[in-house]
Each structure stands twice: as structure tokens, then as C-alpha cells.
Amino acid sequence: MTQPTPRTDLVAPPEETVTDPSTTRPVLQARGLVKRYGGVTALSGADLELYPGEILAVIGDNGAGKSSLIKALSGAIVPDEGEILVDGAPVRLPTPIAAREAGIETVHQSLAVSPSLDIATNLFLGRELRRPGVLGSVFRMLDRARMRAEAARHLDDLGIMTIQNPNQAVETLSGGQRQAVAVARAAAFGHRVVIMDEPTAALGVRESRAVLDLILRVRDKGLPVILISHNMPHVFEIADRVHVQRLGRRAATLDPSGCSMSDAVAVMTGALDPAELSESALAPGAVR
Questions:
Q1: Are 202 and 31 in contact (CB under 8 A)?
Q2: pLDDT score for 254
Q3: S-S: 71 plus which of 54, 77, 87, 167, CB 3.0-4.6 Å?
């Protein structure tokens, strides 16, 4: 007997999976951070949450505590009070090396690349690969061939097509290409978080576009990104949430899809109380 054909129009379509920050554990979290420099309080109970697979933009006026917050998260300074958690577990980050060991890589505005060295050497700066056996363990010889191959692979993984030769000296690269080398280094070794401080500040329009696309590719690889920027169009183009820092603490966390740039600037400068914003302007899980 012929079996009747089942009706596919009665089958419910699969539901979309949406990450809800209110129910997801942060990859990186800061709670009540306080940092004082004599009589000046740079951080006054600062909070921050970074969730898996997102780009979190951090904005704020000069003196709002953005730099101090990022330095605390990257191990450059030690806060006087508060705690930092990685994957829900409290960690102590007394040095940038400790932050790197926790999986937090930072691309500073100054880039921290050595112009006279080639791309592969810059990519492994401070983490050079040694040759196997006695040549590496005793004579400390570098495995340059392996570093070149690994550098080419990391650049290719991020779709950086403007750099073809990992033996090329960094001083011969454009500003955007140097930024790409710094980002590739962070993505290669940051297995939890990548922090980027003003990555497009000194770049032209075309190079800025390439760096923004590169940040999106880092996010798409599964690495959450903290982006510090004064460029509002860039922030609203690629950020999933916007952390507004004011007077040493978080003023609000905004949803760029439901908030205007002018409202974000108004909150940042204190001209607008976050309590006056609509629900759609606030990021999911944000506290007023």
C-alpha cells in the first residue's frame, strides 16, 4: 500500500537562536572598578560586560575613564577596588602578560609594532617559535620558516589580501596595513577577547573601511571585541552594543539599532539622562 505523502506546510519553521545578554554569561566582566591617582578618581565603580560573539563599543568624553578602564582590563594598571571576571571566574591581572595568559589581547593606538622587523617577526614578537630539539632548547635558534608559514596563515584567515609577503618589513607598509598586522597578531593569540583602542584614528577613509571589515571578520571568527572609538559613524556601523562611559563609571549601555548618534552623544556629555531614553534605545539586559 502506498504511504500518503506528509504535508510539509504543517511543519513549523525552526526558531532563530538569539543571544540574550540577560541570560548569557559574559566572557569578560568588570564589577565596581575604582582607580585613584592621588586626589583624582579615574574610575568610580565602573562596570562592563562583554558577551560572546559581539562587538562592544566603548565611548566617552575626554576624562571619562575609558583609558583607565581598558588599561585595567588589559593588565596595564591594577584597580584599587573591584574585580575582573573571565568566563565568570575572578582573575587578577597585574601585568599585560597576565592578561595575555588569560586570553585578552590588546591592539593599542600606538600599534606597538617594530618598523624595522618583518611582518612574521612582528606577529610573533615576544612569543617567538624555537626550532625543535637541541637547536631550539640549547642554542635558542628561531624557527623562522614556521613563523613565516604561521604568519601567512593568520593573515589569510582574516582575509588580509593586501599583504602577500610575510618577509616584508613593516616600515614599508601603509598605516592600514600596519594596523592589519597588529590586529592579526591579536586575533592569533587572543583566544577569549580582543581589545582595540582607536584602530582607525590615524587612517584615511579607504584604510578605515578595510580595518572595520577586519574587525567584523575577527568577530565572525568567534572572538568578542571591545572597540574604543570617538568615531560615531564607525561605532554605529559595526557595534552590537555601545557602552557609554561618563565621570568614571558606566552611564548607559545602548542598542545602536534603536538609538540615534545624537542621543548617544547627549548621554555621553550628560545632556540627556539615560532614564529618559526609550526601551528600544537601551541594549537588552541594560539597567537604567
A1: no
A2: 97
A3: 77
